[in-house]
Design a protein that fits this description.
The structure is a single chain. With 815 residues, the protein is an all-beta fold. The protein has one helix and 56 strands. The protein has a six-stranded antiparallel sheet, with no helix packed on it. The N terminus and C terminus are likely disordered.
């Protein structure tokens, strides 16, 4: 995890003071070109990377007939240095796939690829064969009547598939049709990642495809003179069957306009672009634009208010005067009254509650209307995905909007002050907003614990508490509870709590100094303690509550003995804190999980290492579990490392649940009770225990063959001749959960017995709870895609904001 996650909303990052950062070329590109247009050239942007990161170049060219699909990713990376590499994933005749990858750290802007020339050179025309196939490359889909072209000699099958490209700034689906020398859905020859770009393939193109949509939300009050407003949306991959939606609402009162924007995925039916005048002046006006589409990626491409709003001529003034205000923070009691336009007779004062489509906001509205009542929206209750309710009893108890999120990270002292950008939450009626910030300093490091959100606690003025001050270890906190306005818990920096201290005078004691959520190694370097300290502290803080769930290992210098770092404090805001100095009760384990699909995984070992570690709860042990499913043509490996309350303290087991001939299902499970003992480095821990497999003699049976790690198999799977000794076809799935993995894995293949069970009714494999088809309905497969409800703020051209990504739960910069 990078220690500094600064996201510039306009795509630019800046280094923090004292952190050495590399400058890299950055940018992404993906499009389809005619062969005659190559070579391509481009001018990249520049980016400042976090300390330790390198620069990367990734380029992929996919050629089909007269067209070339171009994919480019340039920027920062955690990957190790790698010399320039050109890989021929597939060469003709017919379709070809080539890539260029490079990772460097030796100088700024070392990822200096600016042309396709090093990778692609024009080929002489191939000798034609006798096969004709549709030939197409498109990010928008190939039409049904795509013209067929003569394939080159040596090709025997027509390919029709969809490539899903994700990562490295690339979010795209590429439809591919062309000629191949063999059947099957394996255009990439087993490649699943090229640089930071993950690539998955689907040849069931008649099914419902995942759509890419523009997404984001924005709510802001503007002066009329600032319109039209423009924005730059982000991108999202929607679940199968969902469409793209645009929703824009403009509420005008006097010289101000409130803009509400929601873009993203939706279950709603397609709907042509529609502009609705919910209320027109004189006085207050409410207009909306809605659109739902599925005909191509990014079809919800509204990027400006221009189609909805045009400036109006000044209205003739009347005789009524009213307070005029639009605000998400509340209108003050003494709001200036303005002259209403002719035709208005009443003053409106209400609160609009906006919920849905990523919008969670209360908008206070004051202005002029031509009739009395609390019906600003003329009965409208939903605009697109946004639900809108109205309340004109503004003196009642209202739901409060608060900043929310959590963050826990260890920083170098030189990196402070830290800044963050919180999200927003609507609290239940009567709840207040709270800010809780704890800083624990030990030597050159500071642990930051932050919790923001709703609370039942009584209002409390901002309070800074010195739970322990140096010399040596120090613990400070900031707490605040408020209800006087929305988003009153507006702490966005450590600056009010922490200021740099002058270097302390050194003493004669040396102690290990460490702050870590992953555990301090046994050989932690000892440092000179400041004068006035007499004892070495070594303990574990258990933090629970307010969205924080973490263990923090602490080592450092104290002026007295004992296990009382917090001076008796047990709660800071909503965070409960307990202390344990018997650190042998808590194991540190390797942590990580993954799924891998490919060829020969049952014969050729692959690496099984993770870079993360985790401190376990008291009594837990370390575990590593590996599950292999092989159907002869292809295999899937699922693995997990981490903590576990399941299994004996020291046990290791290899099991063959279903043996060849036919589908092979085997597993390796290891539970152990010492730090980082779950350290197997490759899948050989399982493969070495499997019986040797020679080339099977073919039999008479034929079966569909498939292993799908994220979903069920289809009826279009490849057909395979089964090995001798198998007599039946298996078509089912195994549902898997535990160890950070939740998925349904589809399986088709040959088996020797008519029994429907590959697992022989096994319910537990290591950390995994397993169920097979027929035992229970499968859970929905785990998805890493977001829907319309997970929208983030948009980038728009009014200012530049630097922000820490702040999530309710753990901060996850690599997610």
């Amino acid at each position: 995890m990078s220690p500094v996650l600064l996201l510039a909303l306009l795509g630019v990052t800046f280094p923090l003071p004292g952190v050495q950062a590399l400058l890299c070329q950055s940018g992404t590109g993906y499009d389809v070109w005619n062969v005659s247009q190559l070579p391509l050239h481009w001018t990249p942007k520049e980016i400042s990377c976090d300390s330790g990161l390198g620069c990367q170049d990734t380029m992929v060219l996919i050629e089909s007939g007269p067209q070339v699909g171009f994919v480019l990713s340039k920027g920062c990376t955690e990957a190790k240095d790698q010399e320039p590499r050109v890989t021929e994933h597939r060469m003709g005749p017919g379709l070809s796939v080539l890539s260029y990858t490079y990772v460097c750290r030796h100088k700024d802007f070392c990822n200096n690829l600016v042309t396709t020339a090093p990778l692609w050179t024009p080929q002489p025309p191939a000798e034609p064969g006798s096969l004709r196939c549709p030939v197409c490359l498109s990010t928008e889909g190939c039409p049904e009547g795509t013209t067929e072209e003569m394939c080159p000699k040596g090709t025997t099958h027509c390919y029709n598939g969809l490539l899903r490209l994700r990562g490295g700034g690339i979010f795209s689906n590429l439809r591919v049709q062309g000629c191949l020398p063999q059947p099957g859905c394996n255009l990439l020859n087993g490649t699943q990642e090229i640089g930071p770009v993950r690539m998955t393939e689907n040849c069931n193109t008649k099914g419902v495809q995942e759509l890419l949509c523009q997404f984001g939300t924005l709510q802001e009050v503007w002066n009329v003179s600032q319109l039209p407003v423009h924005w730059t949306p982000k991108e999202i991959s929607c679940d199968s069957g969902l469409g793209c939606q645009d929703t824009l609402v403009l509420i005008e009162s006097g010289p101000q306009v409130s803009l509400v924007l929601s873009k993203g995925c939706t279950e709603a039916k397609d709907q042509e672009p529609r502009v609705t005048e919910h209320r027109m002046g004189p006085g207050l006006s409410v207009l909306s634009y809605t659109y739902v589409c599925r005909h191509k990626d990014f079809c919800n491409n509204l990027v400006t208010t221009a189609p909805l709003w045009t400036p109006q001529l000044p209205a003739e003034p009347g005789s009524l005067r009213c307070p005029v205000c639009l605000s998400t923070e509340g209108c003050p009691e003494g709001t200036t009254e303005e002259m209403c336009p002719k035709g208005t007779t009443h003053c409106y004062n209400g609160l609009l509650r906006l919920r849905g489509g990523g919008i969670f906001s209360n908008l206070r509205v004051q202005g002029c209307l031509p009739q009395p009542g609390c019906n600003l929206l003329n009965g409208t209750q939903e605009i697109g995905p946004v639900r809108m309710t109205e309340n004109c009893n503004t003196k009642g108890v209202q739901e409060l909007l608060c900043q929310f999120g959590t963050l826990q990270e260890v920083w170098n002292v030189s990196q402070l002050p830290v800044h963050w950008t919180p999200k927003e939450i609507s609290c239940d009626s009567g709840l207040g907003c709270q800010d809780t910030l704890v800083l624990i300093e030990s030597g050159p490091q500071v642990s930051l614990v932050l919790s923001k959100g709703c609370t039942e606690a009584k209002d409390q003025e901002p309070r800074v508490t010195e739970h322990r001050m140096g010399p040596g270890l120090s613990v400070l906190s900031y707490t605040y509870v408020c209800r006087h306005k929305d988003f009153c818990n507006n702490l966005v920096t450590t600056a009010p709590l922490w200021t740099p201290q002058l270097p302390a005078e050194p003493g004669s004691l040396r102690c290990p100094v460490c702050l870590s959520t992953e555990g301090c190694p046994e050989g932690t370097t000892e440092e000179m303690c400041p004068k006035g300290t007499t004892h070495c502290y070594n303990g574990l803080l258990r933090l629970r509550g307010g969205g924080i769930f973490s263990n923090l290992r602490v080592q450092g210098c104290l002026p007295q003995p004992g296990c009382n770092l917090l001076n008796g404090t047990q709660e800071i805001g909503p965070v409960r804190m307990t202390e344990n100095c018997n650190t042998k009760d808590f194991l540190t384990c390797h942590r990580g999980n993954s799924l891998r699909k490919g060829d020969n995984l049952a014969q050729v070992p692959i690496g099984w290492t993770v870079s993360n570690a985790v401190m376990c709860e008291a009594g837990q042990v370390c575990q590593e579990t590996l599950l292999l499913i092989d159907v002869g043509r292809t295999s899937t490996l699922v693995w997990s490392k981490g903590c576990s309350a399941v299994g004996a303290q020291n046990s290791q087991k290899t099991s063959i649940h279903s043996a060849p001939p036919g589908v092979l299902v085997a597993s390796y499970a290891h539970f152990c009770s010492s730090d980082l003992c779950n350290g197997a480095s490759s899948s050989s821990v399982l493969l070495n225990s499997l019986p040797p497999q020679g080339a099977p003699e073919p039999g008479d049976q034929q079966c569909l063959t498939c292993v799908q790690p994220l979903g069920t198999c289809s009826s279009d799977s490849p057909v395979k001749t089964c090995p001798r000794g198998t007599t039946h076809c298996y078509d089912g799935y195994i549902s898997l959960s535990g160890g950070g993995v939740t998925t349904t894995m589809g399986i088709q293949g040959c088996v020797a017995q008519p029994s429907s069970s590959l697992l022989n009714h096994t319910r537990q494999i290591g950390i995994f709870s397993v169920r097979e088809k027929g035992e229970e309905e499968p859970p929905a497969p785990h998805s890493e895609r977001g829907g319309a409800g997970g929208l983030e703020s948009l980038t728009w051209g009014v200012g530049l904001a630097l922000a820490l990504a702040l999530w309710w739960g753990a901060l996850c910069p690599s997610c």
